[in-house]
Structures are given as C-alpha cells and as structure tokens.
Amino acid sequence: MEKNENIEMITGDPKKAINKLSAPIIASMFLIFANSIIDSIWVAGLGAEPLAALGYTTPLFLIMVGFGNGLGAGGNSVISRYIGAEDKHSANNAAIHNLILSAVASIIITILFTVFLKPLLILMGATSVIDYAMEYGLIIFAWTFGLLMPPIVGGAFRAEGDIKRATIPIAIAAIINMILDPIFIYTFNMGIAGAAWATALGPFISLLVMFYWIFVKKDTYLSYNRKDFHNDLKMYKDILVVGIPASLEQLVLSVLTIFVNYMLTIVSGPMAVAVYTAGWRIVNIGMLPAIGVGTAAISVAGVAFGSRKYENLRVTARYAVKVALIASIIVCIILYVFANQIAFIFSYSESSADLAPSIASFLQIMCMFILYVPFGASAGNVFQGVGKGTISFVLTTFREFILVLIFAYLLGFVFNMGETGIYYGMLLGGGIGSLICYACIELYINRLIRSRDQQNEAKSSI
User: Scanning 49, 264, 313, 352, which has its CA 20 to 30 A from the CA of 89?
Assistant: First the structure.
C-alpha cells in the first residue's frame, strides 16, 4: 500500500499521532461550538424567551449533528482499520459507502424532523415559546444535508490522517456564521430566524468545498472514483455497527438535556432553562480538549487494531486520558475563576441582565463536570475505533443517562435540593460512570493482548 506523510503519521507512534491529530480536531470542534455560542449571544439580545426557545431546540439540533458525527466515527473506524491492515482498495470502497450513507441519512432526518418538530417541542415543554422555537427549528432542519454531511466526510479525512481538510471547512462555516448572525438578526431584522439561516448556510458552503477536493481536484489519499466502488452490504453494516451506536450516544445526551430542561422547568420555570442553555454551552466548550483527544484516538485505535498492535491500543487509551485530563484541569480552573465575566456575554442586554448571577453560579458548579470527561470519552472512542460501537453506546447510556439522570432526580426532587440539586446530581452520576467506562477499556485491551499471545504460543508449539 502506497503511503504519504499523513498515512505514515497515523500508522506510527500512537502518542505522536494523537498529538498531531488532536489539536486541529479540538480547534474544529471549538469552531462548531462557537457557532452555537454565537447564536446564543446574539439571540440573547432579543430577550430571555428567544434564548429559552433556542434551549428547547438545541437537543434536537444536537441529535442531528450527533448522527452525522456518529456516521463519521463509523466511517473513520472502518477506513482506519483497512488502512492499518494495508488494504487501500477496501479503504476507498468504505469511504464511498460512507458518503452514500450520509446522503440517505440526510433525506430521512429532514423528513422526520420537519414533520414531527412541533409535537416534539411541545412534549419537551416549549409551549410558552413554541412560536420562536418553530421559527428557528424549521429552517435548521430544512438544511439537514448541509449540517449532517460535513462531519461524515470529515471522518474519512481523519481516517487517512488528513486533518487539515477535516478542519478547514469547519473554520469556513464558523466564519460565515459569525459574519451573517448580526446581519441577519438585526440589520435585516429577521430575529431568531436570522440566527437559523446563518447557522445553516455556513456548513452548506463548507460541504461544497469538501466536494471540490473529492470530485474536482481529486488529490485526496482515498479515491472516490466509480471504479473503486462495488456495492457491499457488509461494508454498510460495518460502518453502521459503529455509526449507529455512536449516533445514539448523542441521542442519549440530547434526551438527557430534554429531561434536565423538563426538571428545571418544574422546579424553576423557563428562566432556569435559559440559564442552563447558556451555561451548558460554555461547559461543552470546556469539554472540547477531552472530546478532541478522544476523537483523535478513534483513528489511532483503528489502525492499531487493524495491524494487531494491541500494545499501541493500550498506549492510545492511556495517553489520551493523560493529555485530556491535564487540559481539562486547566479549563476547569479558568471557568471557575472567570465565571462572572463569562456569564456577562449571555446577559449583556437589559432583558436578559437578570440571568448573569445564575449563569455564573452554574458555571462554578458544573465546571467540575469537565474533569470526568477524559475517562469516559477516551474509553468510548477507543471502543469505537476497534469496531465495538455497541459497547461504547451501552457505557455512555449507563453513564450519561441512567446514572446522571437518577442522581439528578434524587438530589433535585427526593432530597428537595431543587435546581442546585439537579446540577450536583449530574456531577455525581457523571463522575462514577466515567471511571467505570475507563476500567472497561483497560479490561478489554488486556483481554485482547492475552488472547493474541495465547494464539501465538499455540502456533509456535505446533
């Protein structure tokens, strides 16, 4: 299999590969969340009700984006394993299958979300702000293909180690959104609909850039030519075995957000949802170093697994946790110290000024959540890299939904601690679950190494 600089990097030292891959991934993820933060900042100027509407729509938006990221992880896993096994033809074929799946998924999700958007929003408790939520949501989900496909195509770029092409389009989308948000919302007086149009148009243009590289310039390592494609149902299955569980992980997180929004609505009303919406987006940014390092681990783990270098798999898991934890501690300290200043960006208008103290208090509590993410994220992504997406999904569901939700309900309602109790419950459940997840990946890798060594011993004794 011919190699280029990117392939040599991804198949070499796991630590160097993670270092080189993770920084651009973190930057691209920061830009993705920056789009969300920018929307919140500009929408906050419209008042608390539009901001709360954004909060009710966000879980559904994240489900869509999460499905794209999930399929991207599935394609990444399959392609990187073929690259590790030095089978470029199958890697090309997998990349084309991945692209086809992204187009089909875009059509299905567009239909489902546009048809059932209003009932879902009402079910989530958004009745008091339903007009704002529908105005924003219908535009977003009409442009599903532009929002869903870039992370899927980007997964193929990451699998071949071409991190620049996985990152540049996201930067383009972020810059376009930054420029268009104030123009559409205030200059054109489009309100919350302007925020939706700005969010949708940026990724669409970035997708066109990706297609230019693949189909016009044709200088990617992976080939998308017709001669490289032969329809293989097993390959679709291999991508979905990782992609669907990875997508469902985001669904679990989004459903958790829906439940948290609902609980907050009961104990404190829509204003608590507005606080949670603003504050949780900042916490999500704080999680990016850990998530970015974990995402880099998918490619590195896939290559190690494909080449049966299981010691490299162990190095990948442990090094990912180490690097992510150091970065997470730094971010946690920054959020705690500058909570008041950060809260101000979501409460700069007269209509939302009352939110500032509550957002600052939220940040000083929930910044601790960031410290648990390296363990759970790294473990889950390594499982995805080796093709065990179902295990990753089960562990994420157990950690982020069952444990977090149970403890949030217990402290918030059973122990009558209200809004603060919900937040402390999320911390407790997330912490316990993340440590359990990391213990599982260590046990799995140890089992792989023992099984391989036993097979080698059996062969040598024949």
Answer: 313
Q: How far is CA 452 from CA 309, 348, 391, in A?
A: 10, 60, 21
Please enumerate in sequence order all residues whose Cβ is within 8 A of that of 374, keeping only pairs 6 or more positions apart, or say none: 290, 293, 294, 320, 321, 324, 325, 328, 434
The 10s digit of each residue's pLDDT in 334-373 is 999 999 988 887 665 665 677 888 899 999 999 999 999 9
Mean pLDDT of 164-168: 84
pLDDT digits (tens, 9 = 90+) for 78-119: 999 898 888 899 999 999 999 999 899 899 989 998 999 999
Say if residues 141 and 114 touch (Cβ distance below 8 Å): yes
Sequence-separated contacts (24+) of 225-229 with Cβ below 8 Å:
225/92, 228/89, 228/92, 228/93, 228/96, 229/92, 229/93, 229/96, 229/97
Q: How far is CA 9 from CA 20, 78, 355, in A?
A: 8, 18, 47
Residue 344 half-sphere exposure toward CB, CA atoms < 13 A: 3
Q: How is residue 291 written in tokens? A: 């998530």
CA distance 319 to 325: 10
DSSP letter for 46, please: T
pTM of the model: 0.76
